[in-house]
Design goal:
Distance between the termini: 73 Å
Number of strands: 29
Shape: globular
């Protein structure tokens, strides 16, 4: 089947017949659904519909068939890697069950499955691992209150324990000469990894190795296995060892590459009369030399190969005379020198030792593994004791604990593992390419022969999380392929799903030609076969549809103009960013997708290897009016706003930190800001010996000084705020700052939200102080967790993200940016190198000369790590290229076009050494195109565009007319976790019980006067107060208490439920759900489209483009929506100067304002409530007046229809307070303007004016 075969494969005899009228599936998909009773591994290519297949297999097993009884979802285990994937799978199962029940209403079994779905075992791998560990905590010797701790909390513990272990071993070494001899391996190890002048933390290499080891089933004890094997191999033939076999294989690949390069050069020179005379004899001799070396590597010993390499000599090249023309002369000279250098490097790194020296190196490496085991086993033991004492664990602990429960000492399944096998009839594991050996062994014990594993080894890109694609590769090699139940082996089988339903045909062709070249170099680790080629299964828009070619944008280094001339062209990197920015700007709102819709910013994604690569492009797009959204933490953490906020907190903690204080004071957003000249004047006025803060204090005491009053005002303010740091927890301190007139402007940013969320998490751990919080937040930042994720805004922003974050996503238009950037390959330079196949190694250390040099073992491990890193980059490129649905652009900066062309010319499919030598995506892409030049011809799948002299074009801009208020923060702080607080607090006083029930966050729509009195159960010495006078109890106390609890739960769970939740509960849409449907339609609909094509057509468009899901569209009241576009309000919208929809805002309000109880007011003190809201519609007239409108679906009674005044009074009573919050928020954004407010009643089809007179 070729990539143009877009229809499902015809049904075969060994597959059961498909139900009439059902969705058509390919043969591979149907095989994956139907094969039962054995282990099944599904290799599901990108865009192959694996989630749909997984869902359908589950549904079919729940239904049963003529050969199988129906299963229960309670007897299935379904695990994924992320919460989002688990949630999506659960939603799909709920929808499929609902559809099945609708088709068979009387099926009680299916109805029961829908009820059981909410408690089914569908979740992440981490959550599943934690369940049995928590159940059997006593058997493992763990505390019942065990909780997960984050990286920021555990990092100091890890460092402290490792320092103690290393210090203790140093102390032992100094006690006696005998002890020093015993611990010689330890001292040698420390000397080998820590140079004398190295100030780095000595614990870092040990901790890095420890994290790798605990992902293995044997854990730290695997070091003993490595040591034992190396000692045994040291006494035998070197090439029989794992290290020797890897070295020999690598040497053959390298020498084979040199031989092929030279032979190809010889063939090329035969057609050049000059080079054939001057250079060809030397190249022929070189080729003969390399062939002889290859023959020696086939059967020779290490010493024989080393001797042969040591005797190598090259014939001198002839001289090309000045009068002779040879265009390829320099290329050939350079190629020969590279060949000589490469052979010399092989000789010096790997073949410069005797057999005895190699044996010594293997024994020393075994001793190193033993010394490392001594350190890390002690560390592991003490760390476990500390964690148990603190009642904490991290995510890496759970699989280790679980394996202890599931596996007997001899490696056989334990009784608990057999119990799991009896409990689950089917075990489904998604993204199996990302498991490691430890996780694989756990699933093997639990799943037995009824595991269903789905993954794609070509998308295994999480090696930094200890994912092992070799596990998936081994399973694929072990399990024979099957096309249906009849061809499935009884012990297990594999199924290839290669049909891609996402990408256009030309994208499929391009991905296949690139990946067939790159993956062919990895036959063992990836095992790419013809079955792995993508097949286009996408239904095309029409029979005459022409798939856009993949566009290759190459920005070359410009020609340098003479000094003093204009213009100065952009360099290659800047030119690439400029080219992509121009291309994005010219397509938005002008070019169309296959469905005819204009391209919007939300249709476009830019993918990069590292977020920093996109900084220049983001700046260019922002300057030109293109909204950009990035899910990177670094945007917030590295923003100027975050730096100023941290400076503010640093100053509050210690005002005598001059750098932080000066950064704060020169910030214009700070309420008492100084110019740089003013700060210099303040410092000079009192002398350089004083800290800046002392200078401000002294200047403030000088009334005659022009800056005295300002300095005094700042010092007075700082003194008051520093007093707050003593009495307030970190989260309350931040809330206080958000209400402070001096600091308020600094807090109206996403950076403040990040700080506030982290402060809430910090306080939940029963910690309080500012100093501790600053340290905690720094550790979060170091771990990459201290930010807020700014998710891509589908309706109006170009998504810029790393390739890792794009996995699982798709976009109509995709740019793979900075393909000319070199890979980051630092993992093979660590002081301790580790390979899961070979073991650990350090440099050899000579105590007399203090010299450190690489050993053969370390060199082989370094090469293996490098190969693994390069192979992961291949898979990363595959993921990037398969995100685009219709248009794919690949861009790169080319600083040396001739070199790139020569490198591509060396390409040879299956040439592992040459392919792995690439250091950029561009090298692989150009090499693949060199092998397939037809792809660049007319009608081919690729169009290459090369630009040499690129000038900036700031005039190319995008005008986004519908925008969100810039004052609206992206997200608010997360709500408090009351359950965690209650569990961790050993004892709560009476007032604490009351305060624990106070909500920290609420939607503006839920605010009511004195609402706390209906949801807070206030405890007094005499009893409890729940909105009653003086705490007196009466017969209604119990009822009111129940109502209090109900109201509290509503507030804590006030987030709107989506329709996936609605489906999972199998409920009919409520009034709230109908209202949400109307709100979403009015938020996203295109007014012009509705006017041109009507509401129904616009609804279908919104569903097609992902703004509405089908269930939302199905319950949308079309009549009410159509009435909206014939209303006076709509006419007012079209006449407005500016129209904004879904304007979000946040604010902090005093909690004491929402209770009438004086005692509760006193108890609440200055605590504040975090309020979030979203204004449905904000109109600005030409005179600057503003109008706020809120959509409501409240039922209207006949009396209200007849009496507009009554209707207005009722609406004001219900929603007046909410609208006052909206008006206050608008005033904060726009200042003091004329504001009117109205409610648009969808049932009535008209707007009701609301009077905002004070209550």
């Amino acid at each position: 089947m070729t990539e143009t075969d877009i229809h499902p494969i015809a049904q075969q005899d060994d597959l059961p017949p498909e139900p009439a009228g059902g969705r058509p599936y390919t043969r591979a998909q149907r095989a994956a659904m139907c094969i039962r009773g054995r282990t099944v591994l599904v290799s599901a290519a990108a865009g192959s519909g694996k989630t749909a297949v997984l869902t359908e297999r589950i549904i079919r097993m729940l239904k049963g068939d003529s050969e199988h009884d129906p299963m229960s979802i309670s007897r299935m285990l379904i695990v994924t890697f992320t919460k989002a994937a688990a949630g999506e799978l659960k939603t799909r199962i709920a929808a499929a069950l609902s559809d099945a029940i609708a088709a068979d209403p009387g099926n009680a079994h299916l109805c029961r499955q829908l009820l059981l779905l909410s408690s089914a075992n569908i979740g992440t791998i981490d959550s599943f691992f934690a369940q049995p560990v928590r159940t059997h905590f006593a058997k493992l010797g763990l505390p019942a209150s065990l909780r997960h701790a984050d990286e920021a909390e555990l990092a100091p513990l890890y460092t402290d324990v490792m320092n103690r272990v290393v210090d203790d071993m140093y102390a032992e070494c100094t006690q006696s000469i005998r002890a020093c001899r015993q611990d010689g391996d330890f001292l040698h190890l420390i000397d080998a990894i820590l140079p004398l002048r190295d100030s780095s933390d000595p614990t870092d290499p040990f901790l890095s190795l420890y994290r790798k080891l605990i992902a293995l089933p044997e854990g730290v004890d695997s070091l003993l296995l490595y040591a034992e094997r190396m000692r045994g191999e040291a006494d035998g033939d070197f090439f029989a060892s794992i290290v020797g076999a890897r070295l020999l294989s690598g040497a053959r690949e390298e020498i084979g590459l040199l031989c092929r390069r030279t032979e190809r050069a010889c063939k090329e020179m035969e057609t050049d009369p000059v080079l054939s005379l001057r250079y060809l004899p030397a190249f022929d001799a070189d080729a003969a030399l390399f062939r002889s070396l290859l023959r020696i590597t086939e059967h020779g010993s290490y010493q024989e190969i080393a001797d042969a390499l040591s005797r190598v000599s090259f014939t001198k090249l002839g001289t090309v005379r000045a009068t002779e023309s040879a265009p390829r002369k320099e290329y050939m000279k350079d190629l020969r020198q590279k060949n000589k250098d490469r052979l010399k490097k092989i000789t010096e790194r790997l073949f410069a030792f005797t057999q005895e020296e190699l044996s010594t190196q293997l024994r020393e490496c075994a001793n190193t593994c033993g010394a490392l085991h001594r350190i890390l086993s002690a560390f592991d033991r003490i760390l476990a004791e500390e964690k148990i004492a603190r009642g904490v664990c991290d995510f890496s602990d759970m699989p280790r604990y679980l394996l202890r429960l599931l596996e007997n000492p001899d490696g056989t399944p334990s009784p608990l593992a057999m119990q799991f096998r009896e409990e689950y009839d089917a075990v489904f594991i998604d993204e199996y390419q990302d498991v490691n050996r430890l996780q694989d062994r756990i699933f093997a014990h639990i799943g037995g022969n009824h595991r269903f594993m789905v993954g794609d080894i070509k998308q295994s890109i999480y090696g930094f999380r200890e994912a092992e694609p070799a596990v998936f590769a081994a399973l694929r090699a072990k399990l024979p392929p099957a096309t249906g139940p009849a061809t499935a082996a009884p012990d297990g089988c594999s199924v290839f799903m290669s049909a891609n339903f996402r990408c256009d045909p030309n994208i499929i062709r391009f991905v296949n030609l690139v990946c067939a070249y790159t993956f062919a170099a990895c036959p063992e680790s990836i095992g790419y076969t013809q079955d792995d080629d993508l097949i286009c299964g996408k239904a095309l828009p029409s029979s005459d549809y022409v798939s856009p070619p993949v566009t290759l944008l190459l920005a070359e280094q410009p020609l340098q103009p003479q000094e003093g001339t204009e213009p100065i062209f952009l360099d290659a990197d800047e030119a690439e960013a400029e080219l992509v920015a121009q291309r994005i700007c010219t397509m938005i709102g002008k070019e169309r997708l296959a469905n005819g819709a204009l391209i919007r910013p939300g249709d476009i994604a830019v993918l990069v290897q590292a977020q920093s690569h996109a900084d220049r492009l983001i700046a260019l797009l922002t300057e030109r009016g293109v909204p950009v959204s990035s899910p990177s933490y670094s945007n917030v953490l590295e923003s100027a706003e975050m730096k100023v906020l941290l400076s503010l907190l640093e100053v509050l903690n210690n005002p005598r930190t001059d750098l932080s204080l000066s950064e704060l004071l020169v910030c214009p957003a700070f309420g008492i800001s100084f110019t740089l000249d003013e700060l210099v004047t303040v410092r000079k006025g009192v002398g350089q010996e004083h800290a800046l803060y002392d200078a401000l204090l002294l200047t403030g005491e000088q009334p005659q000084n022009p800056l005295g009053e300002k300095c005094k005002r700042f010092c007075t303010w700082l003194s008051a705020r520093r007093a707050d740091t003593v009495s307030l927890a970190a989260d309350r301190l931040l809330r206080t700052l958000s209400n402070d007139p001096v600091a308020r402007r600094l807090t109206a940013t996403p950076a403040f939200t990040a700080l506030y969320d982290s402060a809430c998490a910090y306080v939940r751990r029963a910690w309080n102080g500012l100093y501790g919080f600053l340290n905690y937040f720094r550790r979060l930042c170091d771990a990459g967790e201290g930010g807020v994720s700014e998710a891509a805004n589908a309706e109006g922003a170009v998504s810029v993200m790393t390739i890792h974050k794009s996995k699982g996503l798709e976009f109509p238009v995709c740019f793979v940016f900075c393909c000319g950037k070199r890979f980051n390959l630092k993992d093979n330079t660590s002081p301790i190198l580790f390979s899961k196949r070979i073991g650990a190694a350090v440099r050899s250390y000579d105590p007399e000369t203090l010299e450190r040099r690489d050993t053969v073992v370390r060199g082989v491990i370094a090469d293996e790590i490098l190969d693994q890193l390069i192979e992961e980059r291949m898979r990363l490129l595959y993921v990037a290229l398969t995100r685009a649905k219709e248009r794919l652009y690949v861009s790169a900066a080319v600083t040396n076009p001739e070199k790139e062309a020569d490198t591509a010319a060396d390409a040879w499919t299956g040439d592992r050494s040459n392919t792995l030598a690439a250091r950029t995506f561009l090298t692989w892409i150009l090499s693949a195109l060199h092998l397939h030049p037809e792809a660049l011809e007319a009608g081919g799948c690729v169009k290459a565009e090369t630009y040499k002299n690129v000038l900036p074009r700031p005039d190319i801009r995008v005008d986004i007319t519908t925008r969100q208020s810039p004052d609206s923060p992206a997200a608010g702080p997360s709500p408090f976790d009351y359950a965690s607080l209650a569990e961790e607090a050993p004892e709560l006083c009476r007032d604490s019980l009351t305060l624990a029930a106070v909500p920290a966050k609420i939607a503006a729509s839920l605010l009511r006067p004195n609402f706390l009195d209906s949801c807070i159960l206030y405890h007094t010495e005499e009893g409890s107060f729940d909105g009653m006078e003086n705490g007196k109890e009466d017969d209604s106390m119990q009822a009111q208490t129940e109502e209090s609890i109900r109201r509290r739960l509503e507030l804590m769970q006030s987030e709107k439920q989506d329709f996936s939740y609605l489906l999972s509960q199998n409920k009919r849409p409520t009034a709230v759900d109908l209202g949400n449907a109307a709100h979403r339609f009015l938020q996203f609909c295109d007014y012009a489209q509705v006017e041109a094509h009507g509401v129904r057509a616009e609804t279908e468009r919104l569903v097609k483009e992902g703004f509405l899901d089908p269930h939302t569209a199905a319950i949308l009241n079309q009549r009410q929506a159509e009435a909206f576009f014939h209303s006076d309000l709509y006419r007012r919208i079209r006449a407005s100067a500016d129209v904004r929809r879904e304007v979000r805002f946040t604010s902090f309000l005093p909690l004491r304002n929402f209770t009438a109880n004086p005692e509760l007011q006193n108890l609440l003190g200055d605590r504040t409530l975090y309020v979030q809201g979203s204004i449905d519609l904000l109109l600005e007239n030409s005179d600057g007046a503003l109008h706020i409108c809120d959509y409501k679906t409240d039922a209207v009674t006949p009396e209200e229809r007849e009496n507009p005044a009554l209707l207005t009074a009722h609406m004001t009573e219900r929603h007046g307070h909410q609208l006052r919050q909206y008006a206050a928020a608008v005033r904060r954004m726009y200042g003091d303007r004329d504001i009117t407010v109205g409610i648009y009643s969808l049932p009535l089809g008209k707007e009701i004016p609301i009077d905002l007179s004070p209550e």
